Amino acid sequence: MNATSSTNQEPGRRVAVVTGGSRGIGRAVSLRLAQDGLAVVVNYAHGTAAAEETVKTITAGGGRAIAVQADVADEHAVAALFDRAEEEFGGVDVVVNAAGRMALSTVADLDLAELDAMHRTNIRGTFVTAQQAARRLRAGGSYVAFSTSVVGLQFPTYGAYAASKGAVEAMTLILARELRGRDITVNAVAPGPTATDLFLRGKSDDEIDRLAKIPPLERLGTPEDIARVVAFLAGPEGHWVNGQVLRANGGIA
């Protein structure tokens, strides 16, 4: 495991672990939680430079952050990720599982190797991260997973991806109920079309324009839109929301 460090323990500061925290929505979440005063452990699987840049942006603004590499589907690496968070900052209060993988294809044509890789990250990775969150979160904490609005919209070619995120939704209320009595919330955010590299990759300008016009607000979401929703669920204002899937999609459905 690789890591870069920029701080030591500070009593009273809340601590967040953000998987997939160096790019796209995960990066926006890392920056927003840091803005809200949390120390942030920016997890990444690949691309050390992007993770270090995210940490640099946070620390340049006076925040506290470290970058820690771990495959979310590897239970030993994820346990070590949480160990590092506890060693560096003293505990964990918020876990945001933003790591994800997407492959688009019709059911008939999907390469099953792609199916296995996507489900390893999206299902097993979510379960492994949730397992550590359930064991490690302090009282008053929050766990936020990521689904997708396509679970409800059911666009063609999204079958395998939506299936993997349907599993995330199935876990959400169950885990919230399993954590009864510990003052920990469990929720999932289900973005609609959001202008990230992952979403835009392989789409024509016409297709992007068409998707942008579907919501009544007539635009794509931004990573910052989604980060604000996560910050609400992770903060005291959202602590009465529990066991829910929040569809942040500009009113598509």
Describe the overall structure:
The chain is α/β, with parallel strands linked by helices. It has one domain: Rossmann fold, CATH 3.40.50. 45% of the residues lie in helices and 18% in strands. It contains nine helices and eight strands. Strands 1-4-3-2-5-6-7-8 form an eight-stranded mixed beta sheet, with helices on both faces. Helix 1 (24-35) packs parallel to helix 2 (48-60) and helix 4 runs parallel beside helix 6. Mean pLDDT is 94; it is low at 1-7.
Strand content: 15-25%
What coarse outline follows from CA principal-axis ratios? Answer: globular
- Provide the domain count: 1
The gyration radius over C-alpha positions equals 17 Å
- The number of distinct helices, counting runs of at least 4 residues, comes to 9
Total strands: the figure is 8
Helices and strands, in order, run as EEHEHEHEHEHHEHHHE
Q: Supply the CATH class.
A: Alpha Beta
Oligomer state of the chains in this structure: single chain
What is the CATH architecture descriptor? 3-Layer(aba) Sandwich
CATH fold-level label: Rossmann fold
Stretches where pLDDT is under 50 for at least 5 consecutive residues are 1-7
Mean pLDDT: 94
Structural class based on helices, strands and sheet pairing? alpha/beta
| Fraction in helix | 40-55%
Spatial sequence of strands, sheet with the most strands? 1-4-3-2-5-6-7-8
Main sheet summary? 8 strands, mixed
CATH superfamily: NAD(P)-binding Rossmann-like Domain
